């Protein structure tokens, strides 16, 4: 799990890191303000010695000291990625296959010019034009790469990355870049470690050091001194870039920024090779194929023309020009731009995509496995029901303010007191216009509020019975336990968790004011009460207690032989925007599977509220049932159930379900927030992490981070992903079809024995790089179509250049080709001059080739409009709905007019002024192309079912 440089605890902006004296003592030059490393080794020190050595304190640093150290050591950051290699990266733009072919062509053309007798300025022009193409292409590529990098950096910066520290004795949440040496960091499972630290307190801490060691197994960490040794092996140190996967602890920061172990490795790591997405690879492969065709065509034309009496150099330069003209210059850059536009649009809709790959995968998502709390619901829990001693109580009042009240029965107070003691959340009183806020887990916050409503003060209770040990909640056990001192030498364990899990560990129950053995009959009544709450969509937690011997009993002793105190039921309102998003996914043929640790009845009630379940009987499978299924059984379950809820599952189940869906050929998006969701997030086609509530580990493993945690943002991102794919297809059809229009007249003239070219290489370059680039970009930025979510997902294996795409390229290119051949030969024949008498300077010839170039430009304008829709009439979508496209097309025609009428450009392009009637003829041809497309779409619409992914 290697974090990208600049992620874990760092942002990628600074060129210079903090000074080296902020390093981990014992591994580097010197600790902060301490003696020389030889005299001191932090791993070997006791906790008080660590504080002394780093000028820290168990209450953390003071605000003033922290700010002084920040000035001294600078921010906790790593330098930006890949900066400082500008020249190398610019040079790399000239080494790709296209660039090399073009450079060699330019050189040969230049040599041909020097050998020519007499020298023809057109040959020199061509050599320079090809060189210009290479420079322009490299410039676009470089600028594009640079801007993609900036986008990635700014997106990274938007992903919240904070850490918790103790300053002036108060816990605070800080941006990781503000950490300074000597800070006391509070760590818990799911945190990414933001600096190199020495643990001074550790409760079952385990970390994953994969980013540093490549070893992905969790390793235990302790707070005790350990003997000197290699830094990474110090069992009481945690390092930047690694993750805490279990336990809680406190640690003192020893090194930040580039002085950390991660910083050292980062400095040594060469820039990672840029990964291409499958889409980019397909386009590159297609471009190479076209380049191959161009080469073959050039060679063929040379072979045909060489024996025909033309000067050798002329024929050679001509063939080379044709070849260069057919190379799809600028295509990869256009593709990257349109993917980057998609990424930016998604970011505006709260979905941060970390890799371009996700943009295209999103478009073909067919299954979304979603969490419940926070994603479908608002994660604002309120305890609305209590059940204690066989009696149910309603809790009035809403929100976090202690406005309502609960029945002040003794049993209820004990239930809430125990629940509050067993909570890590904190309630922050209203500040200004804000209401009460919960710090920490919202489930626990709701319990604290309920305790407040019963007249209890959680802080006072904690002071009376201080906590001496904690066994944190984990979604496998579905329980959390704490141990408290409640007398001189007596201890009580407070346990809360999922009702069935907790009941299995109880042997007594508080019943009508007394402790009664938990008989089967009583157990059934508890289960019935829990089911009743769950069926109303409430999250149910059971609470139990027992006396234990000693302050640190084994987990097995704490979580057995318990006495059940009662149940709490909390309501979490669904997010209002989710219903529409769920509808959109349904229309788009995307299956939504709810994956939750909650009770099946709670899950079903919530699923109904947000529209995931509509039928009378959804399939519900629990984690235990999944365990009992082999792979074939799981496949059958996934295949047979249209509405599926997976309940009481752990993150391991999530992973299994994702894999099973992928076996069925589905493209799976999965949400996750916990550290142990990371494997499923990584394995899924699109791992979606929660930006607001998720853990750092989940955010690192995911390719998409939702800033607002809402399911609706996933649905929007899928829509945008589809739209990006459609747009790419549009401009590919647009660009490749005109290649046919460029090649056809050349071939026709060659075979008809016409001695000159119907369009020169320089003219073709003017089209490819002048008039076609902007419309292609405008097509790549087409707004999201309204019907984008009205068709089923694109099949995983569908190729970008599918038969239908190739068919359209041939259809549109074919019409254009017929049009330009017709105008050229009509012009030539109308003059009555025999073919053999034509020279390059002949006005009729110059007019004819101007007609060919203008014909392609004008028909490309109509072509751009035609490719905007697949099957819907473009007039229904609105001719004006993409003003950029019209402006880009207008620019192309303006450029063409300049080439036709401006004398300096006429000299460069060998063109002639066109008459208004000529433009009218060309516009007529263009309109015919649009009409033919409209007719084709009309026929398609008349056909019954739409092929997948093409409804427009
Ligand atoms: N802080 C907690 N302490 C004790 N038990 C808890 C706590 N949070 C949740 N539980 C219990 O564990 C069960 C599973 O919770 P978990 O948080 O693993 O589910 P989840 O998959 O995150 O749920 P969701 O899909 O609603 O987000 C809950 O139904 C609840 O009964």
Automatic annotation (TrEMBL):
Coiled-coil ranges from the UniProt annotation: none
The Cation-transporting P-type ATPase N-terminal domain, residue ranges: 41-114
UniProt-annotated location(s): Cell membrane
SUPFAM superfamilies from the UniProt entry: Calcium ATPase, transduction domain A, Calcium ATPase, transmembrane domain M, HAD-like, Metal cation-transporting ATPase, ATP-binding domain N
PROSITE patterns: ATPASE_E1_E2
Family annotation (Gene3D superfamilies): Calcium-transporting ATPase, cytoplasmic domain N, Calcium-transporting ATPase, cytoplasmic transduction domain A, Calcium-transporting ATPase, transmembrane domain, HAD superfamily/HAD-like
Region (Disordered): 1-40
Keywords of the record: ATP-binding, Cell membrane, Membrane, Nucleotide-binding, Translocase, Transmembrane, Transmembrane helix
Positions of transmembrane segments: 97-115, 121-143, 286-304, 316-341, 731-754, 760-779, 800-828, 848-867, 879-902, 914-932
Recorded topology in the membrane: Multi-pass membrane protein
Catalytic activity: ATP + H2O = ADP + phosphate + H(+)
One Pfam short name: E1-E2_ATPase
Similarity-based family: Belongs to the cation transport ATPase (P-type) (TC 3.A.3) family. Type IIA subfamily.
PANTHER family: CATION TRANSPORTING ATPASE, SODIUM/POTASSIUM-TRANSPORTING ATPASE SUBUNIT ALPHA
UniProt protein name: Cation-transporting P-type ATPase
